[in-house]
Amino acid sequence: MRLIRNVMILCAVLLTAACGPQAPAPQPKEKKVVASAAAPASTANAASPAAESGEEEEHDDGRPTDEQGMYGFYGEVMPYPPPMGINGETTHFEPTSTTAIGFTGPVVFSGIPKEGEPTQWLHMQAANGLAYDLQIVDGGGVEAIGKLDWSKIMMQPVGMEDYLNEKADDRVTVVFVYKVMNEQVPPKAFNGGLCKKKTGYIALTASHAVNYITVAAFSPGPWPPKDDSTLCGAFAYGMTEKDAGLQNGMR
What we know:
Layout: H1 2-19, H2 49-52, H3 67-70, E1 91-95, H4 98-103, E2 107-112, E3 121-126, E4 131-136, H5 140-143, H6 150-154, H7 160-164, E5 174-184, E6 201-206, E7 212-218, E8 231-239, H8 241-250
Antiparallel strand pairs: 1-2, 1-8, 2-3, 3-4, 4-5, 5-6, 6-7, 7-8
């Protein structure tokens, strides 16, 4: 009997081991795959400190090559052409040369907004009734270097050529050229206007450092002219004391 009981116990143990819950077989460890960023094509293209800090990196294109850049609008739009005020103010000038006294008297410069044109037209109004609507000629002052002696014509040092040859720093006097789009000449105007028959272009000096300008008138034709034979005359003006005080406070 004892033998039979022992055999029964052994069978029960074996049956439990065979039919009972079993521990899961060990699974192989999952390999972790780390996605790495693509390596840069060249270590020479490493991000600059400005890029890492989130700041926009400045690009130096070198020295300006036109009068607009020399005047301080390098790579920017110049909304208000000289001699208007810095923020587009109308400016008033008194004649300082005998030609200006005889041909125009005091003159006023104001802007004419034109749709689709980033730089306003310039309106020049003389006290004697002469009036000109002027559109800027991009690069017109620089293009005439070598054909016109700007310093001689404008009766003051013009520094564009020296600046281009790296013989002068910024803040030089430059010349802007405007094409006459509309000319109004009163019947009694001296000489029939700035040019005797018709005025084609008006050039004027511009500088942040001074409050006087010279205006030169040229007869119509291609720009730049071959020489100064198209020059009609030059006229000098000084900004009124009130306007000069306002503009000096903004510079």
